[in-house]
Amino acid sequence: MSNKVLIAIVGPTAIGKTSLGIFLANHFETEIISADSRQFFKEMEIGTAAPSAEELNQVPHHFIQHKSIQDSYSVGDFEKEALDKLDELFQNQNIVILVGGSGLYVDAVIQGLDQFPKIKPGLRDALNLKLKEHGLVSLQEDLKKYDPEYHKIVDLENPHRLIRALEVSITANRPYSSFLNQKKEPRPFQHLYVGLHAPREVIYERINLRVDQMMEAGLLEEVKRLYPQRNLNALQTVGYRELFDYMDAKYTLDFAISEIKKNTRRFAKRQLTWLRKNPEILWVDHDAKQEDILKLIMERLKSMEHAT
């Protein structure tokens, strides 16, 4: 078994993954791969809570703001590019840090993607038309009917994910979730999931504070710049969609901000639902000293060495 290890820092949004990832990367003198799908896009800096310039300067990061919202970029594209980057980094490093809030993207790198049927021609266009004419709620209701299990864990505010699950479920006449977790080729590296957790009220408090900080940092101005491109897939996400509705005079500004907080809390809940299904995660308290978390990680790495 390979002595190369990918340490994946996971957990709900606003829990402190970036800070821990930087601490560990500095300790192991290594680099960070980001698996946060919202932070891939260079035009979406404030609303995705991308690492600051100061944080990026502390340790080399990859897959942060490397794409444009105009680009088509799938989880399959990311999986391939991330594996290529890992091959390169493992030439000189025994440990690489992966930091991510997107469970699907983290698992794509560590476990590989599942194989799905070829989609019926025209189905995606029909679902996109339904989204346009009847709104996001219609797709959410359809998914609950076709695949109630996946409905519990998917980001229900992400139309791209909903359409993907629906087109597979309808084409195959079986739930999208039934295609997940297929047996895959093992990776040429070992992995360790480290999950940050906190009581629900603490997570919600941190989310509310982060949204307020985003607004102070200029999120509304960022959204105004992006308003002409508001129909792009990348922008159908929490923090942007609610402020587009404010600009369309559907919401007051205060209500839009409260909706961002509410939808981000819902997103964090789904992140945790996804992660709790993974029995491999080493869970640590979000406010534990980073040095203490490092000790736990070193113990786990030692036990992995003995197991090989």
UniProtKB/TrEMBL annotation:
GO terms for molecular function: ATP binding; tRNA dimethylallyltransferase activity. Its EC number is 2.5.1.75. Residues 36-39 are annotated as: Interaction with substrate tRNA. InterPro entries: Dimethylallyltransferase (IPR039657), IPT (IPR018022), P-loop_NTPase (IPR027417). Its cofactor is Mg(2+). The record marks S102, R124 as: Interaction with substrate tRNA. GO terms for biological process: tRNA modification. Keywords: ATP-binding, Magnesium, Nucleotide-binding, Transferase, tRNA processing. PANTHER family: TRNA DIMETHYLALLYLTRANSFERASE (PTHR11088:SF60). Belongs to the IPP transferase family. NCBIfam families: miaA. This is tRNA dimethylallyltransferase.
